[in-house]
Amino acid sequence: MSILNFADAEALGRVQSVDTTTVIVHVDDVEALRALQVNRLVALQSSLAGHKLIGVIQKIIRTALGEAKIADVELGEAAHPEVNLVRIMLIGTLLDRDGPRANVFRRTLETVPEIDACCFALEGERLTRFMGVISEVTGGAQRLSLGAYTLDPNAQAFVNGNRLFQRHALIVGSTGSGKSWTTARLLEQIAELDSANAIVFDMHGEYASMAGDGFVHLRVAGPSDIEAGKGLNDGVLHLPYWLMSYEALVSMFVDRSDQNAPNQAMIMSRTVVDAKTGFLKAGGHVEVLANFTIDSPVPFRMETVLGELNRLNAEMVPGAKAGTEKQGDFHGKLSRLIQRLEGKRTDRRLGFLFPASGVADSYDWLDRAVELLLGGSAAKGGHGGVKIIDFSEVPSDILPLIVGMVARMAFHVQQWSTQGLRHPVALFCDEAHLYIPQDPTSGAAENAIATFERIAKEGRKYGVGLVVISQRPAEVNRTVASQCNNLIAMRLTNGDDQAVVRRLLPDSLGGFGDLLPVLDTGEALVVGDAILLPTRIRIAKPINEPLSGTIQFWDRWADPAAAATLDKAVESWRRQTLVK
Fold first, then answer.
1. Do 436 and 310 share a domain, yes or no?
2. Where is the Helicase HerA central domain (predicted)?
3. C-alpha span between 350 and 395 (Å, rounded)
């Protein structure tokens, strides 16, 4: 039985004109017109039996047809003939039956309404039932709920979890609009799944509050962690230099402005390959020697590389005349490369890249790190399914390089996994504009962009999903953003950011972009493959709210007991580690 049985007497109005997906409806009842609102849903009669067309109200028009005469004042409204029109955008079809299934919604238009077809407002109990149909279609045994529809607070809003992560997602919104809240809502439901697998790139420690058996909290090693000798077992993650790709090594250690940069890059490539070869031979890993490359994740000693660079930089070779010497081909040309390597190696802030001997330089260290990051909640060892990595102590100038390193590791592990046995993983990229920028200003950013662009384009094949989160979508790489087929847009007040979101909306939904500056806090416009009906959703409150860091300025200023602890802040600044 159809959930939308209407009597003709309930009609809001009748179709006056049809143009592809746009329908104009004439409304006779002024009171009915006043009750309508833009973006509300309506149902229209279809030319096919058992079909009803679903549309969204785009515009409500009341226009006077003529001017009243003074003699007609006493006639009231009768002297002011008006035409009441509603413009509707068709978005799908509700079928009473599709094979064995009853009440099925499809985002297709197999027909268009005929002229004089009745149009009905979807409200009250009928709206609730229709939202229920949407929920059932998009949900499975483990349904992913975002909250409730703004149109009907009693109708729970579900999205398709498979399509949300297969086709990538973009979560955007101005500061304070509810992005972190929405992300936390998603993470809590992921963590409840038996074999969950997600990695969160947390730039400011916002998600430290996420608690439960499904969460594992890690942080990139800071100076205090290194001094204490902490490692993987302590939730501290080192990201050793030998995990870097060749391009990342060059972008970090070779100064492009140096006239000898090409020579430095070439020599570095040769010395790194030699150092990795030496490590494999010493460890007896001869089976790897046959096919490994400079990008293979094989440990090597930086001291070995520096020793060879110093030798070449000071090398003297036999001259043309017997008994004489001349400078070697690279004599004095590697000095800046050596200085940069030494400077980076001794920088306390970069201790996670250059861990002490025995911390992250063994052949099996990568196995343990990958098991922790990508094993999922059902893997051996019993790690939680959602791994939250705190990058707050990583220097901003190399942040893109380091985040890109973790993303690259995840992608390559999936790529080299046996097809059919891959366990999918979702990467949540918080504050994505910081390390996937539209306009890179450094080699580190270019390296990260290349990694994330490849994941955005090819990740679905290998079971890697992206969730890109940013308050400035205009500053996020266009290629990555355009590959996100699901959009969760919170309030956006900046014109450039609004323009980016509008470009991502389908042509038929362009009008939804006008909602962006007026969305309430915690309210989102959700569009994409994961939800059958593009609509506004009020995001439900997560169990553990993220630590947004929002400080109540006025209240703190008015508190006579509030005091600043500046001495610890200055000492933390000096030590480059947080003093508690």
1. no
2. 146-409
3. 8
Between vectors from CA 81 to CA 80 and to CA 85, what angle results, nearest 5°? 125
Question: Do 314 and 397 fall into the same domain?
Answer: no
Same domain for 361 and 479? Answer: yes
Are 405 and 497 found together in one domain?
Answer: yes
Beta strands 464-470; 82-98: pairing state: unpaired
pLDDT exceeds 90 at position 86: yes
Can you read off the two tokens belonging to residue 463?
Answer: 């079971």
Q: Using an 8 Å Cβ cutoff, are 46 and 14 in contact?
A: no
As a whole number of angstroms, the distance between CA 207 and CA 387 comes to 10
pTM for the model stands at 0.86
Residue 255 sits in the same domain as residue 317: yes
**Residue 142, token pair as written in the block:** 């483990």
Q: Are residues 31 and 85 in the same domain?
A: yes
Query: Do 451 and 429 form a contact (C-beta atoms < 8 A)?
Result: no
Per-residue model confidence as pLDDT tens digits over 367-424? 999 999 998 765 555 567 999 999 998 999 999 999 999 999 999 999 999 988 899 9
3-state class (DSSP) for residue 68: coil
Reduced to 3 states (helix: H, G, I; strand: E, B; else coil), residue 95 is: strand
- With H, G, I as helix, E, B as strand and everything else as coil, classify residue 232: helix
**Any idea what DSSP says for residue 25?**
E
Helix, strand, coil shares, percent, the chain, to 5:
40, 20, 40
Q: What is the pLDDT of residue 1?
A: 65
Answer yes or no: is 129 within a domain. Answer: no
Interatomic CA distance for residues 435 and 444, integer angstroms: 9
Cβ-based neighbours of 560, under 8 Å, separated by 6 or more? none
Strands 144-149 and 156-159: antiparallel
Residues 331-381 pLDDT 10s: 999 999 999 999 999 988 899 999 988 889 999 999 999 999 998 765 555
DSSP symbols for 479-528: HHHHT--EEEE-----HHHHHHHHHHS-GGGGGGGGGGGGPPTTEEEEEE
Helix (H/G/I), strand (E/B), else coil: 565: coil
